[in-house]
Amino acid sequence: MVMPEARSDSTLINQPKASPGRQLAVRRDIVVPAPVKSLEPAVAANPAGPKININDPFAYQRDVFERSILFWDTLRQRANNMIAHERAGKPPLLDFDYETLVDARHFERPVNYALLRITRIGDDCIEDCVDPAKPPVVILDPRAGHGPGIGGFKRDSEVGIAMHEGYPVYFVSFFPEPCAGQALADVLHALGRFVEDVVKRHPDKPPVLYGNCQAGWAITLLSADCEGLVGPAVLNGSPLSYWAGESGVNPMRIAGGLLGGVWATHLLADLNDGRLDGAWLAFNFENLQPEAVWEKYANLFTHVDTERERFLEFERWWNGFYFLSREEIVAIVENLFIGNRLEEGKMRICDGCVADLRRIRNPLVIFASYGDNITPPHQALGWIPVVYNDTDDLKAAGQRIIYLTNPHAGHLGIFVSAKVARFEHRAILESLGEIEILPPGLYEMKIDNPTGDPDCRKPEYSVRFEERRVEDLRFATPRAEFEQVRHLSEVNEQFYKTMVSPFVRAASNPWTAATLEWLHPMRTSRYLLSESFSPWMHGVAALARLIEQRRQPLPEDDGNLRREREAIDRVSEAIENGRKQRDTAEERVFQAIYSVPVSARLEIPPVTDMRDHSW
């Protein structure tokens, strides 16, 4: 799991004075407690302290005890931050001041989205650094269980880089609770109105849409429906071809088949009084790669003197769980993750409107990574040869598709890593002018950086666009098996919706939903380490403050410390091997179930209209 670098400050940003006639909505952050002093100052502050002998077992035992206390104290601080964030209403975790322009909760078909304009970074107003010749950039964060802000929760982020390059920046935020009956079509229509508002503010400058993960396919649908309103669309780790992937490497694509289809998602939403708890999505992400979870905590324990603030900064966002409406999540899972109707051109948005990716005319920039096991390059690019027969067909359609890949960044690292933001995302923004004048075709964006410095500027690095062939993007996909999954899902969903869902919904109410919310393991594993739930954590906090005063970490070349890290690596390797065996077994079960043709099928028409409110 990739964790972003943290800000050096740990206090709330003071509210700036608003200009006449304008009211600024300023972030309400959680105060991250002052981090433990780094080891160098700690040693320097105690020059007369006892010298540490390398390989001394007693010194190692003392060090392990101190790190253990500081480790648990960090988890206590995480729990307190999480509770404070929820009490504050889970505001966007943006490291920039902003004003709210449009609140979609007041639309005729209300949705829990809002359009923000970034107004200030530190002491600088955005008007002081914006280049009026540049088009606006609209950044959309993923609404996939967590709250908004990951695209701008630190200075070295997509928001920060776009502002540094002189672009007017807008941010699409959302609220913790969905509006009643909110459907996916309502969300898409709201996003379209946001784009129209930005276009009115910047005439003759179509906005650049920046979509992360789930927001990427939302931008794709928007681009297919809003021809002429948008400029280049940047899709970061965004799945568009949901059946693609490598056998045994990308197990998420077969999860729906192993669960029998969308009915399980529908059941979870019914149990939570018509909403899907985003904690379930975060739980699935962690379960996808359990060795990464182990390594996250092991890294904190091993480097607790230097990693505490970075850990707490990332966990502020990771543990802020938001809800999706039943109508939204069922439509998403049914049409996209299981049905794969987007690339097939069969996804109906509303009456007389079916999403057709061939209608997209604005350039698409696709950023994927081989280290991403949630949205691998197969899922980010596999739709292209499905929509376009070959390279000539793509050129005849007048479309330009540019893709670039990272060799090792994880899913979150694509739009969270400070290094990626300062290098790849800045290169994308600086190359937009070249992208828009490319002739129709498929290109791979190559960045040559001889210095290896992510902060270098042109001409220290150069960008070139190499032509590629659509035919080379054809990936082997067991489509017959996934067709079986889609059919089974439709049958199970129809049965559950008709025969079971009414009884579950009758038994569910806000009280039962709140109980399930509080008892979710993603919350209890955090909450219970706060003093509010475990009073003895006061003692851990007091002991941690005493340790901080005279902390003397072991030197890096200590033999006991080296053996500890070797043991951690062995545990991580064992977990990884177990996870690979699990994934292989699941793949075999999937093949055993769905490789056998279904002899008799119930022809039940699928529910594909995303405006359906009859759940």
Main sheet summary: 11 strands, mixed
Shape: globular
Number of distinct beta strands: 15
Distance between the termini: 36 Å
Number of helices: 23
Beta-strand content estimate: 5-15%
Radius of gyration: 25 Å
List low-pLDDT spans.
1-51, 598-615
Helix content: 40-55%
User: What does the average pLDDT come to?
Assistant: 84
The secondary-structure class comes to: alpha/beta
Descriptive notes:
With 615 residues, the chain is α/β, with parallel strands linked by helices. It contains 23 helices and 15 strands. The chain has helices spanning 39-44, 57-87, 158-164, 184-201, 214-225, 252-258, 263-271, 278-288, 290-302, 304-318, 326-338, 341-344, 377-381, 384-387, 391-396, 413-416, 418-430, 432-436, 479-507, 510-518, 521-527, 537-549, 559-594; strands spanning 97-103, 113-121, 124-125, 137-140, 169-174, 208-212, 233-236, 275-277, 323-325, 347-350, 353-355, 364-369, 400-406, 441-448, 462-468. Strands 1, 2, 3, 4, 5, 6, 7, 12, 13, 14 and 15 form an eleven-stranded mixed β-sheet that branches. The protein has a two-stranded antiparallel ribbon with strand order 8-9. Helix 5 (214-225) links the parallel strand 6 and strand 7. Helix 9 packs across helix 10 (304-318). The longest helix is centred in the last third of the chain and has 36 residues, at 559-594. It starts with 38 loop residues before the first helix and ends in a 21-residue tail after the last helix.
